[in-house]
């Protein structure tokens, strides 16, 4: 009898450790299953869970780790990379993985006809690229120009099969697309040929399947989580987090500050339809610094984000351990200092109103996207903070397309509060923000030549960090960029919101990270309802 | 009936007086944020507690009453007048006019007004004051809210046109315009009043929803609609039932107005 019970217990434990289905929601329909064409968050989730990559950035340690490549070497000042590949690896359809697959994928990635968004990071200069096998299990790729953080860029490159008939269904990741019902759900099944094993030799992934429900409504998502119909909610807003924390305190996770920013910037475009005197305010370093000092970031974190945010310092989040310039601190809140700065710049108070040198009342509008409660509340706080300086701030909420049209085409705006999503630790992904000729140099985009000496210096520094191969040298360049942004305040960094999530107690081996995808970054090691199999 | 009307009148007077003397009754400004008293419970300092930004709910309710009590009925009046004119004329004239107007109403109702509202917001200057913004919002609501009432008015007019007293008036040689203004419109009054009362709360709630499009009452000006948006968070209501104050006030005011404008036999005047 005892033997039967013991056998049953063993069977139960094994089943619990290795089986099960993880269920969570995608907010939108994925636009593609082709890993090279991924642009949206839902497609990126599918790619992360299904595509095999040569190297993977460990979201927890922020270190680069070999996946399908056991070794790699960057040469020719970041133009060339050589990979040694793992052997005895097969695609989900049984086709063997060879160096030809890698060479084929890189050629596809760089094919101008494909317009791969992932490939943009590798197109640093015009010219031809080369990719070929250099041995039975080694491959090289040479790009037309130096690519910063070349190896790390391969974290986003899902390897395609060169020989499979249905290339998109042959994958090297832990899961493969099993069933897809448009508008309803996607079911990912375990890849039976996945190459990884855990420390005890057991095949990964532990889960049998992942069910991704397509659900836009956040309230419904939360309700389904409460009813145990979902196992995790990967991104929560602070209000939902607190609500859930009150009901199910053990299921909520605050992973700390994310890489995302909430920022304010002023319109400095020379051709914008703003009165000259307003453009002069916005182009004044002292004015922008004063506004930055007058905004109480701690209050925004406490009041708007309910404590689930950290005052932002600059282009590197406080959770970006390597790239953050540790000598910088968030702009200190000080109304007297802001007033002194403004007075030195020719502004003066008349009663409760701030006037500029020519006697114009300092009044401007700040736009933000409609329907975002966090932004609306942040603006209400900024409005009261600036009133202490005698500045009248007019809050304007616009639908998102109108907002984008104003800040990127007509330039008919004065200042804007917006969220910027950042998924990459490496500053190279911010080239399009800090280089003055870039379209996303939002406060004054697409400059033919840098309009200010400090923008010229930032251009040089960003190009230098892009070209340098020594990591410490690159950091030194980017540290200086962060210092310039702090001193000149072209963008006022307000807060880094925390990565908030909810996970059912049924899900084991969860190790929350601040980088996306925060909860399921180690999906191959997650289990449902079992005991902890291994921690990473 | 008279007693109920008197009570309603007193209540309405109290609400109006309270909103007029908001500056005296409320201990703080509607926009001042007490950031150390976020979502506070009711107290002598804050009789209805504070909102999530630490603003005095009581002060915001009183000042919001000014905005909503003045502008929502004004917008409802505008839409009812347009409905009376369009629906009444169509019903009275009949024939091809009626068909043309009915088709026009159907077309108007089928148009995607959301995009018009987005365009209006996009065209407004960015430095529009909160007061101007709220007036434009209610003006738009008044101008766009007439179509459904116009259908009902048209149907009501068709019934009245064939009534004995109108037939007799017409037989006695009463002119068409006089018939319309003196005999038809007064008899449409119950329908028009019903449409007016329906429109008031609808417009108050519409103003709250327009906030999602960037129209409506902008910060820091309060309105009932903006305060009602807070009720989306149902768990907060369970813990802070005083958040229902603007909804309760809306119900009380609409009921009182209905009572006050009723005649002795219970029919709205």
Low-confidence stretches of chain B: 264-269
Give the chain pair forming the largest contact, with residue counts: A-B, 30 and 25 residues
Quantity of strands of chain B, as a count: 0
Number of strands of chain A: 22
Q: Give the integer mean of the pLDDT values of chain A.
A: 90
The CATH topology of chain B is MetI-like fold
What fraction of the residues of chain B are assigned to beta strands by DSSP? Answer: under 5%
Rg over C-alpha atoms of chain B, rounded to the nearest angstrom: 22 Å
Instruction: Give me the CATH superfamily of chain B.
Output: MetI-like
Please identify, by name, the CATH architecture of chain B: Orthogonal Bundle
Shape field of chain A: globular
Helicity level of chain A:
25-40%
Query: What characterizes the major β-sheet of chain B?
Result: none
Summary keywords:
heterodimer; A: 536 residues; alpha+beta; 15 helices; disordered N terminus; disordered C terminus; B: 269 residues; mainly alpha; MetI-like fold
Task: Explain what the structure shows.
The complex is a heterodimer of chains A (536) and B (269). Chain A has 15 helices and 22 strands. Chain A has 536 residues and is an alpha+beta fold. In chain A, the strands form 6 sheets. In chain A, strands 11, 12, 13, 14, 17, 18, 19 and 20 form an 8-stranded mixed beta sheet that branches. Chain A has a 4-stranded mixed beta sheet with strand order 1-10-9-8, with helices on one face. Chain B has one domain: MetI-like (MetI-like fold), CATH 1.10.3720. The interface between A and B is medium-sized, with 30 and 25 residues.
Please specify the SSE layout and strand pairing.
The complex is a heterodimer of chains A (536) and B (269).
Chain A: H1 2-18, E1 21-26, H2 41-50, E2 55-57, E3 64-66, E4 69-75, E5 80-85, H3 99-109, E6 130-135, E7 138-142, H4 150-153, E8 175-181, E9 185-190, E10 209-214, H5 218-226, E11 232-233, H6 238-247, E12 252-257, E13 261-266, H7 276-283, H8 285-294, H9 297-304, E14 309-311, H10 335-344, E15 348-350, E16 353-355, E17 363-369, H11 373-387, E18 392-398, H12 400-410, E19 415-420, H13 431-434, H14 453-467, H15 471-488, E20 491-503, E21 507-508, E22 527-528
Parallel strand pairs in A: 1-10, 17-18, 17-19
Antiparallel strand pairs in A: 2-3, 4-5, 5-7, 6-7, 8-9, 9-10, 11-20, 12-20, 13-19, 13-20, 14-20, 15-16, 21-22
Chain B: H1 2-20, H2 22-25, H3 57-93, H4 95-110, H5 113-123, H6 130-144, H7 147-161, H8 164-171, H9 176-210, H10 224-228, H11 234-239, H12 245-260
Helix pairs in contact in B: 1-3, 1-12, 3-4, 3-6, 3-7, 3-9, 4-7, 6-9, 7-9
